[in-house]
Amino acid sequence: MIYDCAIIGGGPAGLNAALMLGRARRNVAIIDNNKPRNAVTHESHGFITRDGVTPAEFRRIAYEEVLRYPSVEHLQTEAVDVRKNESGFFEVLGTSGLLVQARKLILATGLKEIFPEIDGFYSLYGKGLFNCPYCDAWEMQDQPLVLVSESPAIFHTAKILLNWTKDLVVCTHGRSSLSDEQKTLLQSRGIVVTEQPVAAFVGHNGKLEHVRFADGTELPRTGGFVLPKFVQAAPFGERLDCERLDNGGIKTDGVGRTSIPGLYAAGDTSYFNPSQVVFAAADGSKTAMAVNLDLTEEDYG
Ligand SMILES: Cc1cc2nc3c(=O)[nH]c(=O)nc-3n(C[C@H](O)[C@H](O)[C@H](O)COP(=O)(O)OP(=O)(O)OC[C@H]3O[C@@H](n4cnc5c(N)ncnc54)[C@H](O)[C@@H]3O)c2cc1C
């Protein structure tokens, strides 16, 4: 069978694309390995009607809704390769020899985060340490927090965080990523700035207790944010040689079409930032409409 559209990635972007294509009576295969990036967190925030939902519950509801449409299939497997064959169809190869052929392909594989290597980080990530203030700062408001980043984006995030707490320590982790002017401005707002490398995050049951610096000093904190670098979670955009944005995201025309005819990208994999469930779902929806329009134009002119 040749599907109208294959979607690699069944997160909010891929699932909303599948929902719209299913409603448009298109044959769709969602290829997903069920490794959502936000699985580490207890609650997802900021999506109206779903504020505070667990990522697992969000997925459960989404799959239940999407699979009500009889032309949508969920193939739970890892895509390992993609190519365009001589007939112009996309072929997605999965583990265990699965081969899916489709007229159109949506990449909705999301991001991978690369965090600075700091002892204790992963035992607290998604519980006491997070990467996005809009997602998780409300729950830690007015608490003593730390912000760690090697990137110049630390300046912007530090200012934003003042809306949630005035007790903030900003740490560049051994880098000189803040100018003297920026340091002075942050300090004038009561923010403590340090350039010391962080040796470890120390906590218990997911709750941060203190930050240990390279010189052995310890700073009591109850939570915080660490800013990662973002990279593609899957190599398919690169493999199909589509144009990229400066930040590494897959360049689209704003409604999902990439530089490769018939290939679309939706959600975090496309724009990288801001990384939000509601943005990804909306992007999936827009992309599905572009796919449906392009299929219609091909079939009926
Ligand atoms: C700790 C944490 C907390 C967050 N909290 C919030 C929050 O509170 N509110 C909010 O709006 N956003 C939050 N986010 C961001 C949000 O999770 C993302 O913006 C959103 O999930 C992006 O959706 P997506 O569909 O683009 O990608 P993803 O949700 O990352 O989905 C990508 C899917 O592709 C699949 N996949 C990847 N590669 C392959 C492959 N080779 N084969 C098959 N399948 C593959 C993955 O298994 C996954 O299911 C949080 C993120 C993290 C990490």
UniProtKB/TrEMBL annotation:
Keyword annotations from UniProtKB, A to Z: Flavoprotein, Oxidoreductase
GO molecular-function terms, A-Z: oxidoreductase activity
Domain FAD/NAD(P)-binding, residue spans: 3-284
Cofactor(s) essential for the protein: FAD
Pfam families, sorted: Pyr_redox_2
InterPro entries: FAD/NAD-bd_sf (IPR036188), FAD/NAD-binding_dom (IPR023753), Ferredoxin-NADP_redctase_2 (IPR050097)
Subunit structure of this chain's protein: Homodimer.
Entry-linked PANTHER family: THIOREDOXIN REDUCTASE 1-RELATED-RELATED (PTHR48105)
Protein name (Swiss-Prot/TrEMBL): Thioredoxin reductase
Organism listed in the record: Paenibacillus tianmuensis
